[in-house]
Amino acid sequence: MIRVNGPGVLDFLSKHFSRRVASLRCVHGELRDGGGAVIDDPVVVLSADGGFADINLHGGPWVVASTLELLKRSGFAICDERTIDDVDGATLLEREMIDHLPLAKTEQGVRMLLAQPAAWRAFIDSNPSPDAIGRVLDDPCLDRLLHPPRVAIVGAPNVGKSTLANQLFAQQRSITADIPGTTRDWVGEIANLEGLPVMLVDTPGVRETADPIEHRAIERSREIVTGADLIVYVIDATAPFAPATSSALLRVLNKADRGVPPGLEYDVATIATSGQGVDELRRLIRARLGCADLDPARPRIWTQRQRDALGRGKLKSILESEVLSS
Q: Per DSSP, which regions of 148-262 are E strands?
């Protein structure tokens, strides 16, 4: 969508759009360049006062580039910076909600974001206690849904890291084999863990190696792990090694069908080849990242402005109506 602002909006549309536009109405027509060639068949919505219009394009990068070039030739300048005031909405919270919708990568993220205006009205009307306000301040869930945390899968070679990663991706992303060192570089991609998107990183097994490519991959994976929000440490039940306990570490005992070593501490047992225990692993990852509860009706914060207002106890300022001027 391209928003066109300024006194030349109506003149531009009369010259290049095939239909007559009307305020606050969706009008479908053809957008033509100066020579009469059709660029696209967008839907155009004119603002109430005619001061700006939204051109909703259907095509790809060429269509967008051609439309911007036509606008520049018609005297418009491209604004590189957009502020929250450029977003429609009756309140600042609604504008923040709409502004962040493109960041939602799962259905649960979209539902939670759309529910926030109503959730905050109900929360404020309930006259919440300081403890209730504190729980909202400490809740990272919606921010996690909009900015996927990084989860690194680590462990010794051939413990089943890549097979486990493929189970979490719900499709094959990493090459697996019963040969140590099969994964020679880290593989990262967004995985949907029952509503929570995470950047899941499958790292090569850490070991001494003479292979320069594998050695560099192991060094790079250490950098990736250092910046991870959560580390999934995979332990082989047939050759166990117990890592230290840490809140940033989730210990997975894989190949649990081959027996569980006595006295070994772990958080969840899995059989990556069959998927057994993977649902529990997804649940634990979500819980460790503060997203055990994805109830969209709960009030959440996802901007620094909201956090600052809530921290000062200014609940109503989160929902104060701020009419957007054209």
A: 150-155, 187-193, 196-202, 230-236, 249-254
CA 124, CA 128: separation in Å to the nearest integer? Answer: 7
111, 117, 119, 123: CA torsion to nearest 10: 160
Write out the two tokens for 148: 């996927």
What gap in Å lies between CA 104 and CA 125, rounded to an integer? 27
List the alpha helices (DSSP H) in 51-160: 61-73, 92-100, 107-114, 116-125, 130-137, 141-146
- The answer to whether 55 touches 5, Cβ cutoff 8 Å, is no
Asked if 302 contacts 318 with a C-beta cutoff of 8 angstroms, the reply is no
Give which of 286, 120, 318 is closest to 194, Cα–Cα. 286
Contacts (Cβ under 8 Å, ≥6 apart) of 79:
none
Strands 52-56 and 43-46: antiparallel
Cβ–Cβ contacts within 10 Å for residue 20, how many?
9
Rounded to an integer, what is the distance from CA 55 to the centroid of its chain? Answer: 26
Rg from Cα positions in the chain: 26
- Burial of residue 19 (CB within 10 Å: 0-12, 13-18, 19+) is exposed
Question: Residue with structure tokens 């005992």?
Answer: 253
Per-residue model confidence as pLDDT tens digits over 9-59: 999 999 999 999 999 999 999 999 988 899 999 999 999 888 899 999 987
Distance CA 55, CA 9 (A): 11
- Rounded CA separation 257/183 (Å): 24
Q: 324 and 89 in contact (C-beta within 8 Å)? A: yes
Rounded CA-CA distance 297/116 in Å is 7
pLDDT tens digits along 231-244: 999 999 887 666 65
How far apart, in whole angstroms, are the C-alpha atoms of residue 287 and residue 51?
Answer: 48
Give residue 101's identity as a one-letter amino acid code: L
Q: Among the residues of the chain, which ranges form H helices?
A: 9-16, 61-73, 92-100, 107-114, 116-125, 130-137, 141-146, 161-169, 212-226, 278-288, 304-311, 315-319
